Amino acid sequence: MSTSSLVSIADISRDEIHDLIERARYFEQHPNHKVLDGKVVATLFFEPSTRTRLSFETAVNRLGGRVIGFSDAGTTSTSKGETLKDTIKMVSNYVDLIIMRHYLEGAARYATEVTDTPIINAGDGANQHPSQTMLDLYSISKTQGTLENLTITMVGDLKYGRTVHSLLMAMRYFKPKFIFVACQELQMPKEYLDFCRENNLEYELHSDFSEDVINRTDILYMTRVQRERFTDIMEYEKVKNLYTLHNDMLANAKPNLRVLHPLPRVNEIDRDVDDNPKAYYFDQARNGLFARQAIICKALGIDIYKADKDEQ
Ligand code: CP
Predict the structure, then answer these.
(1) pLDDT band at residue 306 under the 50/70/90 scheme
(2) Residue 80: Cβ within 10 Å count
(3) Alpha helices in 150-260 (DSSP H)
(4) pLDDT tens string 195-217
(5) Residue 42 belongs to what H/E stretch?
(6) CA 5 to CA 55: how far, in whole Å?
(7) Cα 312 to ligand 1 centroid, rounded to whole Å
(8) 116 three-class SS
(9) Closest approach atom of ligand 1 to CA 55
(10) Which residue has the higher pLDDT, 304 or 180?
(11) How far apart are the first and last CA of the chain?
């Protein structure tokens, strides 16, 4: 496995998180810094995406590299029965870095076992979404001025939502308090509650999305119910609209509270929240470009600060 791969947020140290945030800050100031001249990056998306794929591809383009790949595996030889192993080995012949999203948990880890080309996990089933976590951390750092001692309320689909799983694990270094708001069927899985206990992370479990909870919150992290992970559509219908944030629910929120959502949203955030200064989800998606530029350069071992000096 290439040590430059980013498969799970669990593989990243506290110092690496701070370093990636600083690099994201750098790219926000210098988005067109051409450090990928001659590099080719593959984006292999076996599942749908808007933000993750387009922001990764924009990141490569702005850095001066080239992108190949697919957004619909149905148009590739996967549809003829080619295995994931063979696909990864083939694409490795052509590129310097592979960014992949797959519906199977563990697919990105498996890919690192069949190639030396660095792999970035752009989401594997309900498991992990580490590049989303880096942009979430960058967004939290920008809006709160710190990652430390924050109350983070996660609402919605905490069972299948890979973004909340990754974020929870990343926050282990920063003494957060978590409030998990979900119906019984979609509450945070036991393995992540065990993770909290093992890492001395405080948490509360709620089924009511109350103003008392909102008013104690610094980061309100809303999530979509992951329809694509349900095997029984009737189960989805029962839980799909249980939690919606409306603007009036933020009336007594802390001044520093920001509403985050990995997007896409369905009905979790009413449109009347969009103009509230506490709504941060579109800025959050924009931060994804800079966080992903930082992740790509780290994976390729590019010293952006040295490259900056060489250019001067
Ligand atoms: N947040 C996120 O992963 O969005 P996409 O599914 O559009 O990439």
Answers:
(1) confident
(2) 6
(3) 162-170, 190-198, 211-215, 233-239
(4) 999 999 999 999 999 999 999 99
(5) strand 40-45
(6) 18
(7) 36
(8) coil
(9) 8
(10) 180
(11) 36
DSSP label at 145? Answer: S
Of the pLDDT bands very low, low, confident and very high (cuts 50, 70, 90), residue 126 is confident
Cα separation, 183 vs 242, in Å, equals: 8
- Report whether residue 52 contacts ligand 1, using a CB cutoff of 6 Å: yes
Distance (Å, rounded) from C-alpha 7 to C-alpha 199? 21
Whether the CB of 50 sits within 6 Å of ligand 1:
yes
Assign 164 to helix, strand or coil: helix
Roughly what angle, to the nearest 10 degrees, separates helices 130-144 and 51-62?
80
Cβ-based neighbours of 232, under 8 Å, separated by 6 or more? none
For residues 246-259, one letter each, b for 16 or more C-beta atoms within 10 angstroms of the residue's C-beta and e for the rest, the string is ebebbeebeeebbb
Match 């970035």 to its residue by tokens.
Answer: 120
